[in-house]
Write a structure and sequence with these properties.
14 helices; Rossmann fold; about 350 residues; alpha/beta; about 40% helix
Length: about 350
């Protein structure tokens, strides 16, 4: 049997930069040999090991755009990481490196460039983050989710849409999901609340303060994220209409998205892409003063989601918006229809590009 060409996937810090890479692995794992390169303790390691994808950890540093003594240490870590990457590439001999963001991929991409290995950078967000900006000159091609992002990257940019779940092949055991997440009673609308891969302290507090009223009219599954961003929900832990968990299997999350009446979320592009593909009614609360606000504005502009500003959001307003969406069928139909056209699927275009370059 001929030996398969190897592709290295790399990203981390948030789950959002990992999800499209895992979809590439899922789409092409029968044709190529894959390795994922990430940090030693990042969320990406947990996600990757769940799908039995080979994983190698390297040192990682980041550059903060504000004064911090950690920057001096991280410069040293980035330098060491670069030499780690050179050794790793010599050992693994990949044909290509692919990243969807994350500082861990920066030294790897530049090491690949020096060794004349093709590099694809996938830009999900409307506005590029610093890590992707640092990899522009190392990249062979930069694929983008939004047409507007092409102006940042020039001739290297290729608009393909985003990489998300392949709904043609997406199947799940509905009865199993219903039993696992205690969803047998569908007399109340189901709301999924998720604050991103690591969670949102603001969103967790907001949910906690709203549960008393919401649980009388809805059933809620709340993914709270890491424990250090959680708050006490002791009064509601055993409520029949409320289920809270720190993390959730990604495949299960997609199944729950398909069953949900409303999804309330931050505005990472991986999640927004899934909501777009599933045509979900969404209430979005972007992280203030971040790239998420640009993502959210695109959805608001196209009347594809309800977008709430965290800086002015109160518990009363939050509950009011949920009730308005639940009571207005025409609004739900409009949001569902409009969100489906915001992000096109880039899965096949990415597959074609990878095969073309290799």
């Amino acid at each position: 049997m001929d030996k398969k060409d190897r592709i290295i996937l790399s990203g981390g810090a948030t789950g959002g930069s990992v999800i499209p890479l895992l979809q590439i692995y899922q789409d092409l794992n029968n044709e190529f040999d894959f390795l994922f390169v990430g940090t030693y303790k990042g969320i990406e390691r947990v996600m990757v090991e769940k799908v039995n994808l080979r994983y190698k950890a390297i040192l990682s540093g980041k550059w903060r755009r504000y004064f911090s003594f950690k920057n001096f240490l991280d410069i040293f870590l980035i330098f060491l990481s670069f030499w780690q990457c050179l050794i790793l590439l010599l050992q693994e001999k990949p044909k290509m490196v692919i990243s969807a963001g994350g500082f861990v991929a920066v030294p790897l991409s530049w090491a690949a460039r020096i060794m004349n290995i093709s590099v694809i950078i996938h830009q999900q967000d409307l506005i590029p983050g610093l890590a992707n900006k640092l990899m522009i000159k190392a990249a062979t091609t930069i694929t983008v989710t939004f047409e507007q992002s092409k102006k940042v990257y020039g001739d290297k940019a290729l608009h393909i849409g985003n990489i998300g779940p392949n709904l043609e092949n997406f199947k799940f055991n509905k009865e199993e999901i219903i039993n696992k997440y205690k969803l047998k009673d569908f007399s109340l609308p189901l709301i999924i609340i998720i604050g991103g891969g690591t969670g949102s302290l603001f969103l967790n507090k907001l949910v906690n303060e709203s549960l008393n009223e919401l649980l009388s009219i809805t059933k809620i599954i709340h993914i709270s994220g890491s424990a250090d961003r959680d708050v006490s929900f002791s009064n509601y832990e055993k409520h029949e209409n409320y289920l809270k968990m720190e993390l959730i299997d990604h495949y299960d999350l997609l199944a729950l998205f398909s069953l949900a009446d409303i999804v309330i979320s931050r505005c990472g592009l991986a999640t927004l892409t899934e909501l777009s593909f599933f045509k979900k009614v969404a209430i979005l609360i972007p992280m203030p003063d971040s790239h998420q606000e640009f993502n959210a504005f695109e959805f608001k502009k196209r009347e594809a989601a309800i977008v709430l500003d965290q800086k002015f959001l109160t518990t009363d307003n939050f509950i009011k918006e949920i009730k308005e969406v639940l009571s207005n069928e025409d609004l739900r139909k409009k949001l569902s229809y409009n969100i489906s056209s915001v992000i096109k699927s880039g899965n096949q275009a990415m597959i074609d590009l990878i095969k073309k370059i290799i």
